[in-house]
Specification:
Layout (H helix, E strand, L loop, with lengths): L2 H9 L4 H44 L12
């Protein structure tokens, strides 16, 4: 039995009002998690694009080396 199945089994013993509240919260949590996964995936694509552009500029001599204290 999976952890989720255990939770559902335990939750099914609770009064229906509490089950409904828990279900609503779980659905909100799932939607929130899916939103974060999408946002992070999209930002990862953008970061990869920016990194490729920075490497291209560096290879073409279009960058200036700087230390952290110079930024």
């Amino acid at each position: 039995m999976t952890r989720l199945e255990q939770v559902i089994q335990r939750a099914s013993a609770l009064p229906s009002e509490i089950q409904d509240e828990m279900a609503d919260q779980w659905l909100r949590d799932i939607e929130n998690e899916l939103g974060w996964q999408t946002a992070l995936r999209q930002s990862q694509d953008k970061l990869s694009e920016l990194a490729r552009e920075a490497l291209r500029q560096s290879a073409q001599g279009q960058t200036v080396p700087k230390g952290f204290d110079e930024i």
